[in-house]
Amino acid sequence: MVEFIKKMMDxxxxxEEEAAKxxxxxxxxxxxxxxxxxxxxxxxxxxxxxxxxxIQKIIERLEKIKEESLKCSTQKDK
Length: 78
Hints:
The mean pLDDT is 92. The relative contact order is 0.05. The protein has helices spanning 2-21, 27-77. By secondary structure, it is mainly alpha-helical. The N and C termini lie far apart (58 Å). It is rod-shaped.
């Protein structure tokens, strides 16, 4: 599905580029499209950062759990 969407977007951009070469596209319209895509990009970056931060918290907690389990291992060895 993702590949299909990519191909459709490429096709649409190619058609828009052709239209621009024939002076059928307003720079203002393109500026609006750029602004929308940049907004989506920023939202995606924010979401990814939040998810990466959450994953980092999980890793840190697992590291603490590992440290505790290592303490138990060394106590059993005594």
